[in-house]
Amino acid sequence: MPEDADFMVGVTDSQGNPMACGGNNILDPSTCYRYSFDDESWSDGPSLLEGRAFASSARLSDGSYWVTGGS
Fold first, then answer.
1. pTM for this structure?
2. N or C: which end of the chain has fewer CB within 10 A?
């Protein structure tokens, strides 16, 4: 992951790859990163509508994810 952030929220994409979003001590707290097991590397993922740290997340049945709470 390119940045040293803490208090990020984790979700998985539709292929089961982990994503880390938001966080504290990060330039853009709306940023998400996706890890590819195939490439063994992190890349930019979709952005949050609003940057967050200390949040919670859930993956919904339609494949989207919901990030809520935090600051």
1. 0.82
2. C
